[in-house]
Amino acid sequence: MIVKLKRNTVEQDVKDLISQLEEEGFEIHSSLGQTYQVFGVVGDTAKYDINRLYAYQCVDSVLRIQEPFKKVNRKLKSEDTIIKVKDVEIGGNEIVIMAGPCSVESREQVEIIAEKVKAAGAKILRGGAYKPRTSPYSYQGMGLDGLKILREVADKNGLLVISELMDKDHIGQFEEYVDIIQIGARNMQNFALLKELGKSKMPIMLKRGFSNTIEEWLMSAEYIMAGGNENVILCERGIRTFEPMTRNTLDISTIPIVKKLSHLPVIIDPSHAAGKWDLVESLSMASVAAGADGLIIEVHHEPEKAFSDGAQSLKPKKFEELMVSIRKIGKAIDRKIN
Ligand code: PEP
Ligand code: MN
User: Fold this and answer.
1) Considering every ligand atom, which ligand is closest to the CA of 309?
2) How far away, in angstroms, is 126 Cα from ligand 2 center?
3) Is residue 247 within 6 Å of ligand 1 at its C-beta?
4) Which residue is closest in CA terms to ligand 1's atom 6?
């Protein structure tokens, strides 16, 4: 339920209303005093007689939310959320590009790739240090050493760092070495992990699970926000369909749908969607045109030798060309791309 207050209300009236609702067992999610004068009432509101609320002078209107997600819901916060990560803003006018290897393999590898993606316009360096691999025999990542390499190389090149977290015991390491925590498709519904992330202040990029609906994805974001961490970025990375020509099917429709339902920024990962490097540029252009707030792209200087996801990784030269193409789209829709 969302309660909209009248302008110039008496503060005591609002306080009385909130404490009454809390006494009745509801949780209040408010951003009172900011640009909007609304608050959310979370709990079993289905049986609540909303007419009772109109007894309070401060109440302008009451709206029942049909959707099960509240804090994520645009009805509760009409303006776009902008996540500030140091000097980078995600969700504003600028379309932010994250790029780098699938996995951190060595310092030298990260150094070569970071320098190239920075020169081409990326602002955030991606790289997996803890890898969620389908096979236990596949490369599992460098762990903490990988995070340290990402941090050092990113700092040297004026980039920020995003990396995937799989284990709640590593949250401390991520708070120390990375700027954005990525939660991968396979952990989208790891609710114990999401609850822990709710206690952190770190920006979280939550990928959509490959077999999850948009509503399930938004409910996972709700877990993090309900825990107290509102720095959530959503990332569509393709879903499983019957089509074998691509690794996954990029669900472009998530962009306008999520933009309508939620105020959170949406990033697109065309690399994991396509699974093939030669599709990445087209999917990136389409994503920018459809309103994505950023892209996360796998880049490797020697994709043939990559420890993971070489087939979908762009060589630096191709990445540079992609940046040129998406800038043209950005210009057409009046959005900045570095
Ligand atoms: C990745 O970003 O390297 C990754 C494993 O992504 P996803 O969780 O989308 O499969
Ligand atoms: Mn990958």
Assistant:
1) 2
2) 10
3) no
4) 184
Q: How big, in percent rounded to 5, are the helix, strand and coil portions of the chain?
A: 40, 20, 40
Tell me the C-alpha distance between 190 and 102, whole Å. Answer: 22
Query: Is the backbone of residue 143 left (phi > 0), alpha (psi -120 to 50) or beta?
Result: left
For residue 294, pLDDT over 90 is answered with yes
Structure tokens at 264: 């959170």
Architecture per CATH, domain 2-63, reads as 2-Layer Sandwich (3.30)
Tell me, what amino acid is at 97? I
| Per-residue model confidence as pLDDT tens digits over 297-312 | 999 999 999 999 999 9
Residue 247: closest CA among 164, 326, 312: 312
pTM higher than 0.85 for the full model? Answer: yes
Q: Does the pLDDT of residue 290 top 90, yes or no? A: yes
Domain-wise residue ranges, the chain: 2-63, 83-332
For ligand 2, the distance from its centroid to the CA atom of residue 133, given in whole angstroms, is 9
Measured at the CA of 314, the angle between CA 164 and CA 108, to 5 degrees, comes to 65
- Nearest-atom number in ligand 1 for the CA of 237 is 9
**What is the average pLDDT value for the chain, to the nearest integer?**
95
Note the CATH architecture for domain 83-332. Alpha-Beta Barrel (3.20)
